What does this fold into?
Amino acid sequence: MIRRFAYALLAVLVAVPAFGQTAKVSSGDHAEFTRIVVEYPGPVDWQVGRTTDGYELRLPDGPRAYDLSKVFDLIGKNRLAAIWADPEQGSLHLSIACSCFAIPFEFRPGIVVIDIRNGSPPKGSSFELPLDGGAVTELAARPIMRPMKRPFASPPQIAPALPRPVYDWTARIMDGNRSDAPPSLAVQEAGQLALQPLRQSLIEELSRGASQGIVDMAKPAAPSGNMGEGNPSVAVRVGDAPNLVIRQRGEEGAPLTAKGAACIPDEKLDLVAWATDSPFSSQFGPIISALTGEFDVPMPQAVQNAAQFYLHLGFGAEARAILRAFPTEQEDAAIWQSMARILDDEPDTDPAFAGMAACDTAAALWAVLADPEVLAVGQVEKAAILRTFSALPGHLRRQLGPILVDRFLAMQDFATAISLRDAVLRGLSEPGPEIDMMLAAIERAGGSPGASEALLESVASTSGPDTPDALMALVVQRAELGQEVTFQQVQSLEVYAKEREGTADEAKFDHALTLAYAASGDFASAFGKLEGDPESAPILWKILAISAPDSALLDYAVLANSQLLPPSAKGSAALIATRLLDLGLSGQAARWLSLAEAPAPLLAARIQLAEGQPQDALALLGGDQSPSAFPIRATALRDLGDDRALAGLFAEAGMTEEQWATISRMQDWSALASSGPDGWKQAAQSLIGPFPDPNETTPEDPTAGPLAQSEALLANSQVTRDAITTLLNSVDTPNFLTQ
It folds into this structure.
């Protein structure tokens, strides 16, 4: 049963052409796709279609100027080879350099996102069609096999010696009006034979057979003899086709599941047809009053109408009650029972839609609603899901939309989630809490956590049925982003978690409460709940590594040698190792670093230095000349006593004061006296300068006696002492060497 009718209209966005304004184009690289973002000055209508070498983005309302100066600032050309604007049409062209496909979507009005993803495009993607409606070849990186030209059979009245034109049936499909084309087989003496339908049918059916793997088209070696003037024939082999069904032209085939079962057809799931356009209140009376006939015998058609009417309204429990109270033979009773449980968000114990997620009917939508796991384990027909969901009545779109959006976001399918969001918002008169929470999830997935938090806080601050879920989502988001959770939020969440004990939501609220304890600084309570909530462990260790005080870090990260490191902390191991090293626990830091997936060489070198292994630290640094590596290298050279190499390191870095301080520690007075700074030079010259011999007289004063010579020595020592004092007062010890 519908628990919330929240009708909301956010905005009606009308695309207004804005000629002469420039659209900014930016980009970003991800592991599985390259993202192109086109920001227009305002809302626009847009189209994307295939070209011979990639894709084209076109605005139907006219040309547009594009700023492409920043496109390749952050990405390479392994997926997007080139991008340019057509000077005539003003459309944007993307040339693809890989076996990729494009999925465009509108992130916000005026912002068009094109993801170039690895692999093959989804089946039936409209973006693989050209915008002009003509035929298009595959991308240049994917050459296709074409049948070779067959020799044209000469009519009997033409002499064999005359040249015979070659009939290219594939080319004539593309351009049947070429003036240089050879005579067509359609012109015969007996009259006109229309071969155009035959050509079209051959191309369509052979292509369909090739895509299904039952037709193999190959180009064999040229046959012997003169048949076909030496041109090879086209070999077409029909392979095994256990599911091949022959039908008359125009006869549609019944869609099948992956296991060969028949899909539930659309007409059995047409909720729109199960009620009229008249007010619901006027429909209740006639439907309920006609349930029984003579002798109170239930009328099968009336029971069917009543059950379907309740399902149209979203009243699952009422539909099941009708079926129980008025038992009749109903062919589709199992389907209605499953739909009723899905609408009431209850487990479907006897699923009628099992295995139908890949059906090209409305059954795909109900299969995904019945079991969220199908998105992760099987093929899903997204086009059928979007088509069916968009056709649902507005109240059912509002009820089921948030559920579907959450499930596709969990699979990181942002494009489908955006399409579902647009269908939900269509026709809304006013926003509601569930819609705000759905929009918050999309904002978070789209990289806007601030907007997401604002929406969640607006719902969590009110009093209503959605308040607990909004607070739970808000707390989890803040904890995962390393933000603080208030004590009041923790208290409220404790109450909500207590209320959810024994329900399907118990695990979700327990998980949120564990993270809330950690984000509020109560690590004792958080680690106390970890045994019953192991899924919280990776985030809990991350919070500990980033924001925990040193006391909490020492309590939970300093382990005895007999204790194993927790595998769930692998993602935070390097952060924990860094903090332990800063606290002087190099041995513990080394243990945690061994758990990290890709240990940073700089951190490993710091740990080796702290462990008294400067030579190993230098080996880990290798040729790293970054500013971060400099103090590690300098300290390692100092610990090794290699002052000459240390002085050279300072000289390369332009640290002249530290350079000469190191040379002085080497007692290289000659170098200091000849090339050192003034202070060093004066002191060094005093140390190595000539001292007067007491037994010799100076040429200037040959009569000087012992007293004069002693006075000269005293004067020299005074000069030396003054130079050294001046030097010591002007030189500071480098900070990093004292750490």
Remarks:
- The mean pLDDT is 77.
